[in-house]
């Protein structure tokens, strides 16, 4: 069975709209505004691997900010 694949790392993402953590609709183009963005789709804190990944990403936030990533 062939598994679906996503975009390559560094590829330009198509604009999309999703609810934020407060339920407000936001567009990628509004958040990134021409800057690089890190996009993460996660099952949340209830899944062990996702929880570990979120903690690791939080620990790297200063580096992302310094690199201009939102």
Characterise the protein shown here.
With 70 residues, the protein is α+β, with helices and mostly antiparallel strands. It has helices at residues 28-32, 48-59, 61-66, and strands at residues 17-19, 25-27. Strand 1 (17-19) and strand 2 (25-27) form a beta hairpin.
Write the layout of secondary structure elements.
Blueprint: E1 17-19, E2 25-27, H1 28-32, H2 48-59, H3 61-66
Antiparallel strand pairs: 1-2
Rg, Å, rounded:
14 Å
The number of E-state strands comes to 2
SS element count, helices: 3
Query: Could you list the spans in which at least 5 consecutive residues all have pLDDT below 50?
Result: none
Give the gist of this structure.
The chain is an alpha+beta fold and 70 residues long. 33% of the residues lie in helices and 9% in strands.
Can you give keywords for this protein?
single chain; two-stranded antiparallel sheet; 70 residues; globular; 33% helix; alpha+beta
